[in-house]
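Researcher: Structure for this, please.
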Amino acid sequence: MPGTYIVVVIWAFVAVGCSALLHELGHAWVARAVGWHVIGLRCGWYGFALVADTNGKLEESWKVALGGLAATGVLMLGFLAGVGLPQPTSALFRLGFAINAAVLLTNLVPLRWFDGGQIVAGIRQSRACRARCPSSQVGRVLGRERLQPCAVSYSSARRLRDGVLPRKRRRSGR
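Model: Predicted structure, token format:
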């Protein structure tokens, strides 16, 4: 029986390592899709992390965060499908499912350093941009329409919209 424990421990390390790598590759795939330049992966004591140049498209960070969560979810469902296999392998797939479920739930926590926090911050930034840049400010750049870049916090955009913040005063024609 000691050989069985060694197999389970090795399987756990492989499942955790592959899950983390595929999670980060999910981030990289979406980052490339939104126009970021992916530089590589960084490995630290905490695991893997995506290194990318945003190309001035920081407002797309919530989509990139969703890419990692989607990859983890698909991997979790793959392990769940393997639970139906005959016994010794079903226990290994159950372990892989549990690991990926824990990673997914942990990353959904809306704290800044988790994917959930990146999603919440990105959605807030998108709403603030829409509140500050109405459709009347759409500009033409090389024949394509684009919104003017926004650099305002969510709370100040809401106060500006509600009329709490004073608007810029016009200079008198002296």
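Researcher: Any notable elements?
Model: Residues 2-129 form one domain. The mean pLDDT is 77.
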